[in-house]
Amino acid sequence: MASNGSRYLFWCSNELTQFRIPEFHALSELFQINLKWVDQNEKMPWIILDLESESQARQILSRSLSVKYCIHLWGSGDGVPKMHEAVKAFPSEFKEPYFLESLSFKVYVEAFMKKLTMAQRVERIETFDYLPIKGPIRMKDPDVIFSYFEYYGDDQNRLDEHPRQAFFGRFIGDGQRHLMSKLSIKTRKFIGNTTMDPLLSLFMANLSLVRPNDLVLDPFVGTGSIPVAAAQFGAFILGSDIDFLVIHAKTRPSRWKQKIRAQDESMKANFQQYGLAAKYLDVVVADSSRPIWARKSILNAIVTDPPYGIRETILKVGTEKKDLVIPEEFLETHYPQKVEYGISDVFYDLLNFGAESLCERGRLAFWLPVNREEYSEERLPRHPNLVLKFNVEQVLSCHTSRRLLVMEKVTTKEGGRAVPQEAIPDFRDSIQSAYALDKKDRKERIKKFGHLNLNGKCSDTNKTADL
Hints:
By secondary structure, the chain is an alpha/beta fold. It contains 13 helices and 17 strands. Helix content is 24%, strand content 25%. Helix 7 (198-207) crosses helix 8. The longest helix is centred in the C-terminal third of the chain and has 15 residues, at 343-357.
């Protein structure tokens, strides 16, 4: 493939690939970048774009969790010879500034699905001896890094002897995957049974267009993994949860062999741990079915993961007793009773609250659990003031999955309410019905949806709807 001066290759992680394209669309909107797609095949470990400038590539790198690194693409081809032809044909005015004697350099070599020895790496580097690079070699912190990639296929058992495709260019920078280590649950001060993986939380923040100084709320905050991700991108955060013990870090520890929680464990301690204490406004014990927040359009984003009733019971304040009256002398110390909170009510209440409290073009992001066999887009909860922007599936098993729904507030209609398509099925029933399948039915289900692989995806499903 002959390249031009504005073509950039983003070498991507092979983890949670269903978020890759939605993330690029979200970041293009965040930074107002006009994406010109050259290659966006989700099955390949790269994305190629024509951009207006290198600064746009750096903007994408400043937020992307999908991207490992980016190169200014000088040449690519179906096989090594065609790649070399493209590099030689690449305009000199884009190459020569990096061949100066005053600039140190190194060449980075990588192969997808194949391990190269040091001798093989050196052999490949020497094939570029036609480039008039005059500067000294420096392996640590060079001025310029040239990058060479080989692609042998995606099936470990059917790899080609020679590269199917090869790429060469100048290294621009790394993505933000280092945040996965920084925010790792393994080293986090305060966690619980339902603490969300940091990579998923960061993806949610990106798809919600979280910006510096935004006001972001998580109404089912739990141990605060999602707010931490939002704060990492500069937002001020608020949170609420009905579970007093979780909010105050009084629950039983979830770490192996930890018998009691440390005295300094708290949600705020997590923000302090990551240097984000200034972004932590507050979290409160509150019932999301009766929002305590002002019904004004002040929130830039609501990013949350409502309970599904599996690990944690879905509850709201209420009683099954009729005409219950609490004597006035007991009101100050009264702890209200809780009743089951139907899963349909959870999501319809969330949409109604989002439509009231989000500012215009603010986003609501939440996970919806589904039975994959019964799923259809027509059954998704809707609201007249919210438009669906992304619908990304994370497969949990060959029977069940959950979908990240990201909605944007587009207008304000007085009296607009969430539109009940039909009752959202109880997720516990979906799981139990899957366990109840006999061997024949299980085989039929696997034939329809594929096998679940080690990455938590069924072999033939990695679906994303970008609307």
